[in-house]
Amino acid sequence: MQTVIELARVIRDRKTLPMKYPLKEVVVISKDSGVLKDVSALQNYIMEELNIRTVTVTTDKQKYGVQLKAEPDHKTLGARLKGAFKSVTAAIKELSDEQLIEFQRTGEIEVEGHKLNPEDLRVMYTFDTSSDGTPNHYEAHSDSNILVLLDISPDDSMVDEGLAREVINRIQKLRKKAKLMPMDEVTVYYNATGSLTRVIPEYNDFIFATIKQPLSRFPVPSTGIEIIIKEDAKVKQDSLDLVIVRGHVMEDKSKTTQGIGALMNGPDNGRSPACRYVNLEMLSSGGKQATVLLENPRDEYKITFNQLIDQVKLIFGLRGKRVRLYPSKDRKQELSEFLVKDTYELHGSLLYVAFDG
Fold it and tell me: Rg of the chain over CA atoms, in angstroms?
């Protein structure tokens, strides 16, 4: 459903909403049930491509304040109507939503005494945000038979996630600037101001799942480390100072390791994090993998089972979904807070992730 993705991207560009910032919902409206069925079948792909939480498909355009409008086919009607074309064009543009619905049903309509057929008119969706009762948190874009509405209303958690993605982007760009390879072991040190001082610790697991390297606050150790690159960056109005050093700095911050990493670079590479952790693999979405720290730093701030579920939702973009964790692919036993009294029991294991809704 490339059309849906392209239409939504146009809205993002128009409203200056970068793809890094998640949005609540995209609504796809069409009278073609086949189109809506295809969109539903590919909703996970659409959510991932657009960084959207929910995909809604519907034929109920009235619910969203959507109406039909018509434009003449200038080439076809101009040659046929000649002198009457101007008055017929004006009348076509005044056709009501009810008249156009009937035209779509019957395939013909009479305008100014001229019988018109589907090849004479282009019927399109319109979205009037000034009308009473029309949801004003949507922005719209359409082609001939699909209307896309994008919910652009702000949400604090989504704004925070967007900031976390900006931090990831700055780190990855700095690694690329230093010509580092993905498997090169490094430690990233940061100093931040403003909202970032709250967002980075809160989204630590989310950031780690992407960069796969330890992230620590300043100060950078003064001895025993090799600084690869440093940069002072800006994320929105906040400052973000980054320093990348070679190797994984251990907890006592007195030495680094160049061989076996302090944090793993993936569930199957044989490395172990300094903190207790659990590996995750999606049972759908191409078997995506991630790692969640069960504590950070070592022996402190242990997360509960419900907090683990929240981290899974965040990392895999499953907000609003019911997430299930299983110890095996056969899904024979779902884990719960009643079965897992102590999340340290999960340390080093591989759990499989499924979701509903």
Answer: 27
